Amino acid sequence: MTDPNLVGGGAVDAAELSRIDDSATTTKKPRSLWGDAWRQLRRKPAFVISAVIIVFIVLIAVAPGLFAHGDPGMGDLTKANQGPSAEAWFGYDNQGYNVYTRTIYGARASLLVGVFATILTVVFGSLVGIVSGYYGRLIDSLLSRLGDIFAGLPFVLGAIVILTTFNAPGSNPGQVTIIVQVVCSIAVLTWPVAMRIMRSATLVAKQLDYVKAARALGASTPRIVFRHLLPNTLAPVLVYATIALGAAIGAEATLAYLGIGVRPPVISWGVMISDSRDYFRADPHMLLFPGAFVTITVLAFVMLGDGIRDALDPKSR
Predict the structure, then answer these.
(1) Residue 98's beta-bridge partner residues?
(2) CA-CA distance, 128 to 202, in Å (whole number)?
(3) Three-class SS of residue 85?
(4) Assign residue 91 a region: left if phi > 0, alpha if psi is -120 to 50, beta otherwise?
(5) Are 94 and 81 in contact (CB under 8 A)?
(6) Backbone phi, then psi, for 209, in 5-degree steps?
(7) Which region among 104-108, 144-148, 236-240, 248-252 has the lowest average model confidence (pLDDT)?
């Protein structure tokens, strides 16, 4: 004869086991790729430090008035070439401009060039890459050879040719015009890298079952590309974009230093470095402080990109 107490106890045990199993299932719910990557990134000091630096630089660019008071275009020749002091933390340049104030306000132009050049590079390169990888054959060959041609152009030489062609000697383009020209020059000479990354990711993704199933069900090409391929091939391109943003900021400084990029009255770190190159021996503070901001910002973006790349790569864990 069955003992009622045992039956009752068995019922309670079954309920408890069911609740524990449901709890364990909820707890062990698999994380998404980005969720798992974020969990990995939070544990890396290099990522946290670089992210803090980038947030700080972006805040400076958005609201420079919070960090520096005064007009960056106002010079006092009586204070020309004075070194750092309590009044001017970074000193004055040869025109009597406050170097600290101009460094703070110069972050905006440098960051704008870097951001827009990166967006244009990634968008155009990704579109070309995904079309090349998806269609393959003749289209892939033609687009790949086109990318090889642009990739073979030396960056500095190509930028000199492009910018001097659109700006004849003695011309004085407006601020917006020269910034647009610099952004387009950087994008034209760097898009093949994004194209190659997206092409490689597309060649792998289009062989997966969900893409083959969508094609078998009669899905249109735009739907397959934008609904299935693009979301699953963005990760490596976004990693490249993070690193490329820092490189674009460095490229802006390089072109300004050569006198073919952003120029006065635009204030940028590159313009400040260019203006101070003839005074470095006597007044190094004019170059060191904007140069330090360029170096730290580029390094922060590179470290951020390296951290994201490692977090998204299962082999590095």
Answers:
(1) 92
(2) 11
(3) coil
(4) left
(5) yes
(6) -65, -40
(7) 236-240
Who's near 51: CB < 8 A, 6+ residues apart? 304
Task: Judge residue 89's burial from the number of C-beta atoms within 10 Å of its C-beta, 0-12 exposed, 13-18 middle, 19 or more buried.
Answer: middle
SS3 of residue 67 by DSSP:
coil
Give this prediction's pTM: 0.81
Residue 216 buriedness (CB in 10 A; 0-12 / 13-18 / 19+): exposed
Which tens digits make up the pLDDT trace of 12-52? 455 554 554 555 444 455 566 556 666 777 777 888 899 99
pLDDT, tens digit, for every residue of 271-285?
Answer: 899 888 888 888 888
Residue-wise DSSP of 223-274: HIIIIIIHHHHHHHHHHHHHHHHHHHHHHHHHHHHTTSSS-TTS--HHHHHH
**Residue 59 confidence (pLDDT) above 90:** yes
- The average pLDDT across 167-177 equals 72
Determine the residue type at 182: V
> Taking CA 124 as the corner, what is the angle to CA 239 and CA 196, rounded to the nearest 5 degrees?
55
* Residue 301 token pair: 């973006």
Q: Which two tokens stand for residue 102?
A: 């101009």
Backbone angles phi, psi at 308, to 5 degrees: -65, -40
277: number of CA atoms within 13 Å, CB side? 12
Give the separation between CA 102 and CA 99, rounded to whole angstroms.
5
Q: Are 129 and 199 in contact (CB under 8 A)?
A: yes
Q: Which residue has the tokens 């590095």?
A: 316
Q: Does 299 or 220 have the greater pLDDT score? A: 299
CB neighbour class for 112 (10 Å; exposed up to 12, middle 13-18, buried from 19): middle
List the structure tokens of 216.
């078998």
Distance between CA atoms of residues 188 and 169, nearest Å: 22
